[in-house]
Amino acid sequence: MSTEMAIGRRDRNRIRNRNEILEAAQKEFSKNGYHDTSIQAIAIRADFAVGTLYQLFGTKENLYRELLVDYAEQARVQFADALSTGKTAYERLVNYVRAKGDLFEDRIPLARLILMETMGTGVLFKSGPKPELNLMYDVWHKILADIFEEGIESGEFRPVDAMGAAVALEGMTNQFIYHWQQEPDTFQYDRAVEQIEELFLKALRT
Amino acid sequence: MSTEMAIGRRDRNRIRNRNEILEAAQKEFSKNGYHDTSIQAIAIRADFAVGTLYQLFGTKENLYRELLVDYAEQARVQFADALSTGKTAYERLVNYVRAKGDLFEDRIPLARLILMETMGTGVLFKSGPKPELNLMYDVWHKILADIFEEGIESGEFRPVDAMGAAVALEGMTNQFIYHWQQEPDTFQYDRAVEQIEELFLKALRT
Amino acid sequence: MSTEMAIGRRDRNRIRNRNEILEAAQKEFSKNGYHDTSIQAIAIRADFAVGTLYQLFGTKENLYRELLVDYAEQARVQFADALSTGKTAYERLVNYVRAKGDLFEDRIPLARLILMETMGTGVLFKSGPKPELNLMYDVWHKILADIFEEGIESGEFRPVDAMGAAVALEGMTNQFIYHWQQEPDTFQYDRAVEQIEELFLKALRT
Amino acid sequence: MSTEMAIGRRDRNRIRNRNEILEAAQKEFSKNGYHDTSIQAIAIRADFAVGTLYQLFGTKENLYRELLVDYAEQARVQFADALSTGKTAYERLVNYVRAKGDLFEDRIPLARLILMETMGTGVLFKSGPKPELNLMYDVWHKILADIFEEGIESGEFRPVDAMGAAVALEGMTNQFIYHWQQEPDTFQYDRAVEQIEELFLKALRT
DNA sequence: GATGAATGAGACTTCATTCAT
DNA sequence: GATGAATGAAGTCTCATTCAT
Q1: Is residue C174 over pLDDT 80?
Q2: Which end of chain B is more exposed for a tag (fewer CB within 10 A), N or C?
Q3: Residue numbers 45-84 of D with CB closer than 7 A to any atom of strand E
């Protein structure tokens, strides 16, 4: 009835295949990293022929990029949501930290890839600009800085450097997430949230 | 008479060659990362034959490992030094943060490699144990945690989770270093030190 | 009532499609040669699906063959026409040389393909017999030889080896055409015709 | 004793390998043409590993180019020799025609490649300038034209267009060589030489 | 001990061809 | 009849590693 229903079988198939391939790619790339993952391996896991991956994604690098961009978009949406939920800046930031943990929990295998790319050590960073992925670094810093700024202006926070606070918060969450990945049995992310509050956020309040 | 004096021309040569090769390897690996650096490229830059590299290091992976272990040892020494300088835990931690920045400043090209490896996304983390490099992650966390513990026991710091504080501090410094690498013109690491004090360390004091 | 009148819409469509595809194929093959032209590229230019091309032509090689055969037939007709126009053998041969130039002028992009194939270096010559294209080589030599023979028998030409004369004439025209393609700005084919007369044909006359 | 004796074993090996590979490449390329010959096939015939071919020649196209350039140089030398032997321009040209036949007889498999490239339908002509191979087309025309010019100036030949005569002669020889390749049992190149004299060269004389 | 030519497994990518819709 | 997504064999090229000199 709607225009969206006009999406044909062809297109639906295409999208389904695309997603299945991205799913397989995510698992393989996360396991061994970009260079030690072959297109063959992804194709086998996805149960498609190599040619199909190339028809849909063009190059290995592009498949990888699409994977991260897909994920970055999801993240952006969820984080924006978290950051707009809560009365105070403090609450919003806690929600963000929690959402970041949730995202990684849902898609644990992607965690290493994301950390790698956001830390600037990844594949995509080598070749020129990568506007799609800026979301993951610059823009996130900026968005967080805005929340800190808000809190400062409303008198909720001490007058600190908002961008510095944003960088610090990002660093902490990343490191806690990494720590959590390394020792999933003895460390829960819930404790990370608590500690970030305790060690950092509370101290910002006036 | 001592065994050390027994180092002959042979061994001295070997060591000199080893260092020249590691120097070249550092430059090449830092430029393009592990996978996009070939042994032949390193050999050319070092002005040795590939066979010589294989005689001294066995495999490409091992050459890379030795490089990082070398660096990790330097870092360990410098950090241990910084962490034992200063009267209070607070001062020692500030010295550590400063020393970390200095280390990266001295050897900027290695920075990406280190960040990559310490974030767990590097080559060496893939396969099995990597005790030498734990220095770079686990052990550092532990050493920092000990300092926080000291500060807590002496009443200098609030009774927080010491390991949590260590993780948080590592995360912050890494992120500031990364930020600094990205925007070397507008951001000085000195400001990072100040902000880490302002946002984090001061708030720990009783 | 006749079978020819029985050509229905179906068949007319089929022929129209066939021609559109051949047109596109000609452009693509001429641009990049046989091996560097893909069926998909032809399909896109012709605005048909690849499946349609395969339904009509079976294989890539066959599509190519049909293209050349089509062209060869056109050429045969035009050359036969030229060779039967003119009172003397001399005139007929001049007409032929002119017609050959005209043909290449009309369909310049095909020129390289034809030269390639007639020089025996093309795709179709590789595998076994290729009777359709003999038109383009053996048969042409023979037809020309017949004209020379006629001229000799009628006393118009000296008693030379007719086949040798035919081969020589073909070689000259091909080389002039090639020369002309290489330097279209400074060399006109009209001059080629004059020179072939001057250097070769006139000398044959008694 | 001479400096040439200073060529070491290494270099001698390298040159021998190079030649063996070129030999194998010549056979394979001549059999199936550039595109239908794989580096694998050449490597197997030459009894080297693929990597060795790549170490010595860089790319497939370059291996092919070297092959033709090597050959072109041989040809240039032999033709220059033939063209400088003989008292009259007529004799020199006959010597050239004969030398051309000899060259092709010695290295029959290369004939198709050479014709293909000199006719401008080959692989190397697609991508920009190819100065090395100009020897095979432009320069040869020019050199021949100079001989005709000489003959004209000395009064030995009629005052015809020298470049036209050169083009005509090249075309004839090429076509006779091709004809000869096609029917090696019934047609000897000796007859080609005679006929070129009879049909073309003699008629130029005053 | 040093050398570097030789190796060959394996990676990415293309594209002629098929076949279910 | 027409479509074009899917296929997978095959090709080019790289590079870690070896070993005869």
Answers
A1: yes
A2: N
A3: 48-52, 54-56
Is residue B128 scored above 50 in pLDDT? no
Beta-carbon neighbour count of residue B109 at 10 Å? 13
C157, C175, C181, C195: best to mutate for the D interface, most D CBs within 10 A: C175
Going by pLDDT thresholds of 50, 70 and 90, the confidence category of residue C76 is: confident
CA distance A183 to D138: 74
Q: What is the arithmetic mean of pLDDT over A24-51? A: 93
Q: Three-class SS string for chain B? A: CCHHHHCCHHHHHHHHHHHHHHHHHHHHHHHHCCCCCCHHHHHHHHCCCHHHHHHHHCCHHHHHHHHHHHHHHHHHHHHHHHHCCCCCHHHHHHHHHHHHHHHHHHCHHHHHHHHHHHCCCCCCCCCCCCHHHHHHHHHHHHHHHHHHHHHHHCCCECCCCHHHHHHHHHHHHHHHHHHHHHCCCCCCHHHHHHHHHHHHHHHHEC
Size of interface C-D (CB pairs under 8 A): 130
pLDDT for the residue numbered D108: 64
Indicate the domain borders of chain D: 1-58, 60-204
Long-range contacts of C152-155 (CB under 8 A, 24+ apart): C154/C89, C155/C206
Mutate to test the interface with B, among A175, A182, A193, A196 (most CBs of B within 10 A): A175
Residue B66 has pLDDT above 80, yes or no: yes
State whether residue A157 is helix, strand or coil: strand
Nearest nucleotide relative to A56: CA against C1'? F5
Cross-chain Cβ contact D160/C112 below 8 Å: no
The residue of chain D with its CA nearest to that of C138 is D179
Q: Is B126 an interface residue toward A (CB < 8 Å)?
A: yes
pLDDT tens-digit readout, C92-120? 999 999 998 888 877 666 766 766 665 54
Query: Partners of D205 in the beta sheet?
Result: D157
What does the block give as tokens for B91? Answer: 């001062």
Distance between the alpha carbon (CA) of B49 and the C1' atom of E2, Å: 8
Cβ proximity of B121 and A110 under 8 Å:
no
**Candidate CATH numbers 2.60.40.2230, 1.10.357.10, 2.40.50.140, 3.30.420.10; the one for domain A60-204:** 1.10.357.10
Phi-psi region of D120 (alpha: psi -120 to 50; beta: other; left: phi over 0): left
Closest by Cα among D16, D17, D14, D62 to D39: D62
Hey, are the CB atoms on B119 and A119 less than 8 Å from each other?
A: yes
Q: Which nucleotides of E are covered by protein (CB under 7 A)?
A: 1-21
Asked if A168 lies within 8 A of B167 by C-beta distance, the reply is no
pLDDT score recorded for residue D20 = 95
On whether any CB of chain B is under 8 Å from the CB of A178, the answer is yes
Selection from A94, A79, A122 nearest residue A189 by Cα = A94
Superfamily covering domain D1-58: Homeodomain-like (1.10.10.60)
Q: Is the pLDDT reported for residue C125 higher than 90? A: no
Least confident of B8-22, B152-166, C161-175: B8-22
Subunit partners of chain C (3 or more CB pairs within 8 A): D
A125 close to A106: Cβ distance less than 8 angstroms: no
What confidence tens digit (pLDDT) does each residue in A11-22 have?
788 889 999 999
C-alpha span between B72 and B107 (Å, rounded): 12
List the single protein residue with the shortest CA to C1' distance from E2: B52
Q: Dihedral sign for Cα A40, A44, A50, A53, please.
A: negative
Arithmetic mean of pLDDT, A127-153: 73
Q: Which of residues 44-73 of C touch strand F (CB under 7 A)?
A: 48-52, 54-56
**Hey, what are C74's tokens?**
């056109």
Look at A195 and B170 and tell me if their CB atoms are within 8 Å.
no
Any idea which nucleotide's C1' is nearest the CA of C43? F4
Q: Determine the Cα–Cα distance for residues C44 and C27; give it in Å rounded to an integer.
A: 12
